[in-house]
């Protein structure tokens, strides 16, 4: 703890602070905030060098001294969740700060590009859903009034050194309007299930590349990434811009984990090494900033979209650019404490890069957290490929998370293809047998046998498990003994 404490002092000396009289707290600390339960609580700020700082919160009293640079930090003991409003008091000879209406519960950070930024009041600018009530998002936006859900919206700005936020807010049409819809529905589902306060920090930027959300140290510390890095750019792309202003100033504010919905820009502009390398570096970089290598990181696999049919692009993308990107996203699941949701069933228009079903995205992310982080007995993943076996002219596929395997439209499973002896892929006849899928083909299968499932940017497959969660795309080749 002493070592971490010293590291935090060094790191925090670089962060901008929210000024109040002659003593300050970082801008992430405001009225109406949610403090993370059952974790040490970091509080930091600035005061005249050498000045004694007193902090009180609930039953705790703590004191520290501002260092030679005027930086101070206190680490309070973990506290239990409470819906009863509390006060945090920070005082010294230079002044006193009283923050009110504070709750204790679960805190999460939601980040990414436009599909995470897609806000609670921005839905009129996007297509209405065709499969459900077209006014679901509007109704939820108008009805949102839970006193135990709090939000902090981080504005899209790379100017200056101060975290661009107006602070923590209680729910209202005004405060909720710019907040991530997927993030809000995650918070709502989490709060309803756990019956504790939930704080959501919404920090996203439409059209942004993953490189802009990664700390510079991630490029400097990786040989794969360092090859394209020079003078703050990666193959000509500016790096760390959004991280520096919209993420780093939040650390080490105590929180449970991260939600990530990004990648569309990187499908279109694939500079340097693969996305999997970059996402792994981002996860590692964010966890280092919070001094916790086990912080949950849950992300969204991109939805089907016709990247190969975009008008006006100088270089058209191949039909399998998106499936290969899906594969890179899924490969990151071997990083501990990660999880991925699949949304290939949530698209009405393959030429619309913004699927409207954000309440379902938020719910599926919440299922991941409830299962993996909070230990709830809920199904949090759709079927994922496990193994294949070839018997004569049949291919038997085994899946994990396949209880109640079915199709969402009641038809035979679709989007399965087998490679033939002419090196082409033919649509395979697929049949569900128990919790497995059996494939067969009218043409001779090439050996070794190769299977593709949901392997094009237009694929909208129908396979799901009993919980209605869709199967993830994959490709696999028989292992010849």
Give an overview in words.
This protein has three domains: 2-101, Immunoglobulin-like (Sandwich), CATH 2.60.40; 104-373, Rossmann fold; 385-477. β1 (18-20) and β2 (23-25) form a beta hairpin. The relative contact order is 0.11. α5 crosses α12. It has twelve helices and 28 strands. Strands 3, 5, 6, 8, 9, 10, 11, 12, 16, 17 and 18 form an eleven-stranded mixed sheet that branches. Strands 1-2-4-7 form a four-stranded antiparallel sheet, covered by helices on one side. It has a four-stranded antiparallel sheet with strand order 19-20-25-24, with no helix packed on it. 22% of the residues lie in helices and 30% in strands. It has helices at residues 2-12, 114-117, 136-143, 173-176, 181-194, 216-220, 223-226, 241-247, 264-268, 275-289, 321-331, 358-373, and strands at residues 18-20, 23-25, 34-36, 41-46, 52-57, 60-65, 71-76, 82-92, 95-112, 149-154, 165-170, 198-204, 229-230, 233-234, 237-238, 257-261, 297-300, 338-341, 384-391, 394-400, 406-407, 416-419, 425-427, 429-433, 436-440, 450-453, 463-464, 474-477. With 481 residues, the protein is an alpha+beta fold. The radius of gyration is 24 Å and the shape is elongated. It comes from Xylanibacter rarus. This is Sialate O-acetylesterase domain-containing protein. Residues 1-21 form the signal peptide. Keywords: Hydrolase, Signal. It holds the Pfam family SASA.
């Amino acid at each position: 703890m002493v070592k971490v404490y010293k590291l935090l002092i060094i790191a925090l000396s670089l962060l901008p602070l929210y000024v109040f009289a002659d003593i300050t707290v970082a801008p992430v600390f405001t009225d109406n905030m949610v403090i993370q339960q059952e974790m040490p609580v970091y509080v930091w700020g600035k005061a005249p060098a050498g000045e004694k700082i007193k902090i009180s919160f609930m039953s705790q009293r703590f004191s520290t001294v501002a260092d030679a640079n005027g930086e101070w930090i206190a680490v309070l003991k973990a506290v239990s969740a409470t819906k009863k409003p509390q006060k945090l008091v920070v005082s010294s000879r230079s002044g006193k700060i009283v923050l009110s209406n504070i709750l204790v519960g679960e805190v999460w950070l939601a980040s990414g590009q436009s599909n995470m930024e897609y806000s609670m009041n921005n839905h009129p600018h996007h297509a209405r859903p065709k499969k459900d009530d077209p006014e679901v998002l509007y109704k939820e936006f108008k009805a949102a009034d839970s006193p135990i859900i709090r939000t902090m919206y981080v504005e899209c700005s790379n100017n200056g050194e101060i975290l661009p936020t107006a602070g923590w807010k209680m729910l209202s049409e005004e405060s909720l309007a710019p907040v991530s819809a997927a993030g809000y529905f995650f918070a709502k589902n989490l709060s309803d299930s756990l019956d504790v306060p939930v704080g959501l920090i919404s920090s996203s930027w439409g059209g942004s590349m993953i490189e802009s959300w990664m700390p510079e140290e991630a490029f400097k510390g990786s040989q794969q990434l360092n090859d394209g890095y020079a003078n703050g750019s990666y193959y000509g792309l500016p790096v760390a811009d959004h991280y520096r202003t919209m993420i780093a100033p939040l650390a080490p504010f105590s929180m449970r984990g991260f939600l990530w919905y990004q990648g569309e820009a990187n499908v279109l502009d694939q500079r340097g090494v693969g996305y999997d390398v970059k996402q792994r570096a981002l996860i590692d970089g964010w966890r280092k900033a919070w001094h916790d290598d086990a912080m949950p990181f849950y992300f969204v696999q991109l939805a089907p979209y016709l990247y190969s049919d975009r008008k006006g692009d100088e270089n058209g993308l191949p039909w399998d650019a998106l499936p290969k990107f899906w594969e890179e996203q899924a490969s990151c699941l071997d990083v501990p404490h990660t999880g991925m949701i699949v949304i290939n069933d949530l698209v009405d228009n393959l030429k619309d890069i913004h699927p409207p079903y954000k309440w379902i995205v938020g719910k599926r992310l919440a299922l991941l957290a409830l299962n993996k982080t909070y230990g709830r007995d809920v199904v949090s993943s759709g079927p994922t490929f496990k193994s294949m076996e070839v018997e004569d002219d049949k291919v038997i596929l085994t899946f994990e998370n396949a209880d109640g395997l079915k199709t969402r439209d009641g038809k035979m499973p679709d989007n399965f293809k087998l490679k033939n002896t002419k090196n082409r892929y033919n649509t395979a006849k697929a049949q569900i047998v128990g919790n497995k899928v059996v494939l067969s083909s009218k043409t001779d299968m090439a050996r070794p046998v190769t299977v593709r499932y949901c392997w094009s940017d237009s694929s909208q497959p129908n396979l799901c498990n009993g919980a209605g969660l869709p199967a993830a795309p994959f490709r696999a080749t028989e292992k010849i003994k």
